[in-house]
Amino acid sequence: xxxxxxxxxxxxxxxxxxxxxxxxxxxxxxxxxxxxxxxxxxxxxxxxxxxxxxxxxxxxxxxxxxxxxxxxxxxxxxxxxxxxxxxxxxxxxxxxxxxxxxxxxxxxxxxxxxxxxxxxxxxxxxxxxxxxxxxxxxxxxxxxxxxxxxxxxxxxxxxxxxxxxxxxxxxxxxxxxxxxxxxxxxxxxxxxxxxxxxxxxxxxxxxxxxxxxxxxxxxxxxxxxxxxxxxxxxxxxxxxxxxxxxxxxxxxxxxxxxxxxxxxxxxxxxxxxxxxxxxxxxxxxxxxxxxxxxxxxxxxxxxxxxxxxxxxxxxxxxxxxxxxxxxxxxxxxxxxxxxxxxxxxxxxxxxxxxxxxxxxxxxxxxxxxxxxxxxxxxxxxxxxxxxxxxxxxxxxxxxxxxxxxxxxxxxxxxxxxxxxxxxx
Length: 424
Fold this sequence. Notes:
This protein is of the alpha/beta class and 424 residues long. It has nine helices and 19 strands. The protein has a six-stranded mixed beta sheet, with helices on both faces.
C-alpha cells in the first residue's frame, strides 16, 4: 500500500530576530549562489532548536532531517516537549509555510485545526464560517449543506449559529472548528493541541469522532497532544520529537515510555539551573526536597506514610495570595495526585516580601502506589502563572501498607487525601 503522507529529509530554517528570510545582503548572497548552481550558504550555519541556550548563529533549524511515512487510515500521535517542532511540522504539512529543505508528498485533501479559530473569520457567523471552511476544503455548497445539521449538532452551538464567531468563547470556537474539520470529509485530518481548550465531555466526544473517522471512513489523522492518555487511547503509532528532529517512531506504548523517561531525566539538573520554565518570574523555584516523618531527606517514598515536600523559592517581587501546586504524574503523563494550598488552607499564605523562603507541603498519608513519578511545580498569583517547572523531581515510590492491614496494597488510581501547607 502506498503511503498517504511521505516526508523526506524535511527541514525548516528560521532567522532569529527578523521577519522574513534575512537581510538584503543575505538574500543577494543566496541569489548569487543560486545563479551559479551552488547550495544556499546559510543552510550550513544554522543551529539546532535548543531554546535553553544562547546560540552563536542567527539561523536556527526548527526542523531538520525529518523522515517518516503515514499509511491511509492510520492515526499518528506526535509528542514532544514545547519547542520540539511539532506545530512547525503540522504547519508544513498544512502548507501554512514552505519547507527550507526536503519534500512532502500528500495524497488527498487536508483539513487542519492548528489553533483556536483556524480558518474562521471573526466577523462572520457560525453558519457562514461553516460554508467558508467547506469552500476552502474544496467542498461544494450542496455537500456542505448536507453535513450542516450534523456539524451544528456535534458542536452543540445551535443557539449561536447565527451569531458572529468573535462573540464565541474559546471553547465554543474550538468545538465548531473541530466539528467543521472532522465532518467535511477530509482525507487527512491534522489536529494540534487545541482540544485542550474544550471541556472533558467535548474532548471525549472529539477523540471518539477521530477514531470513527479513521476506523470507519479510512481517513488519516495526525494528532499532537501533551495528554499521554489521549495518545494511548487514540493512536496506533507515535512519533517522538526533540529539538527539531525525530528520536523515536513506532508503537504507542513504547513511544510514550521513551518520551516520559527522557522527560524524567531533566530532573537530574538542579532546579535552580533549569531554564525550561514558564511564567512571569515573580517567583522562581530553587530546590525541592522530600523528607520522611523524622524530617530526614529521602530518595524513596512509601505509600501511606507521612511525607514532607520542602520547596525553596526565590521571590523577586511581592506576590498577593500565591498558590502552590505540586502535581504527581505517572510514566504515561497521567496526573495521579496533586496538592494545592488554595483548597487546603483556610487563610491565604503569607510570604513577607522579597527574599528566599522554604514552603512545606505536608501529606499525612502519601496515596500513590509503587512506581516512578514525575513532580511538576507551579506557582500562581493574581497576575497569572509566576513559575512552572515540569519534571522538577523524579520520585520513586516503594509501595507500603497504606490501609494499615499488614499487607502492601496495589492502588489502581490515585486518591485524594488531606494535606496542608506552611511557611517555615
